[in-house]
Specification:
Number of domains: 1
Shape: globular
CATH topology: Rossmann fold
Strand order of the largest sheet: 2-6-1-7-8
Order of helices and strands: EHEHHEEEHHEHEHHEH
Largest sheet: 5 strands, parallel
Radius of gyration: 17 Å
Strand content: 15-25%
CATH superfamily: P-loop containing nucleotide triphosphate hydrolases
């Protein structure tokens, strides 16, 4: 692309946003920033310190001692906290709800907002999260709202955890997804919300089919 292009992809947890955004980044020469990884990093750090991830009083003081950086290797985003590689640990099962909890806290969102916006100003990016098109990059060139049935998301997440060697029960994960969806969409600060000018995209097919459909949407919008 011969100019800076920002693509915002929002949607609930487990909708496949990161997977498809990584493919978009590779195809179109964009930087992919998995914004959820930033919140997971804060949540993981808070858990390591034994903090209540729902408590502003406990989480806000931590922010002054957290330095989050991202890097890329072989197309994969690496997430570092205070110089330590958190890329794998932020995917631990217990971090999912911690990330949802801290993302509802105003100080955390303010802390991470500038990081995301600065990246978008400097280069062409595809960002995925909950409020990219509504808050982080409200002037993004393309906005996508990606969804998939909660039961299907639970099935995918269960398979992913089992493959990584974690214990996982689909019914428990399904209930957790429903709870996280509720938390993300009803929180007072920057809730999960479809931007008025977003394109709806249901990610219900295999990766290849979904990616082809998504590319068609992107290219039509860029004409």
């Amino acid at each position: 692309m011969d100019r800076i292009i920002n693509i915002a992809v929002d949607g609930p947890s487990g909708a496949g946003k990161s997977t498809l955004c990584k493919l978009l980044a590779k195809k179109y020469g964009l930087i992919h920033l998995d914004t959820g990884a930033l919140y997971r990093a804060v949540g993981s750090y808070a858990l390591s310190k034994g903090k209540d991830t729902k408590s502003v009083a406990e989480i806000e003081p931590l922010l002054s001692e957290i330095k989050i950086e991202v890097d890329y290797k072989d197309g994969k985003q690496l997430t570092f906290v205070n110089g330590e590689d958190y890329t794998e640990r932020i995917r631990y099962p217990e971090v999912s709800m911690a990330a949802s909890n801290v993302s509802a806290l105003v100080p955390v969102r303010s802390f991470l907002l500038d990081i995301q916006r600065q990246i978008g100003k400097k280069q062409s990016v595809v960002l995925d999260g909950r409020d990219i098109g509504t808050v982080v990059l409200p002037d993004a060139d393309i906005k996508i709202f990606m969804t998939v049935d909660a039961r299907e998301r639970a099935k995918r997440r269960t398979a992913e955890l089992l493959e990584k060697g974690f214990e996982a029960k689909e019914e428990e994960i399904y209930k957790e997804i429903l709870l996280r969806d509720k938390n993300d969409s009803t929180r007072a600060t920057a809730p999960l919300k479809r931007a008025d000018d977003a394109i709806d995209f249901i990610n219900e097919n295999g990766i290849e089919q979904s990616f082809e459909r998504l590319c068609a949407v992107i290219e039509e919008k860029l004409k």
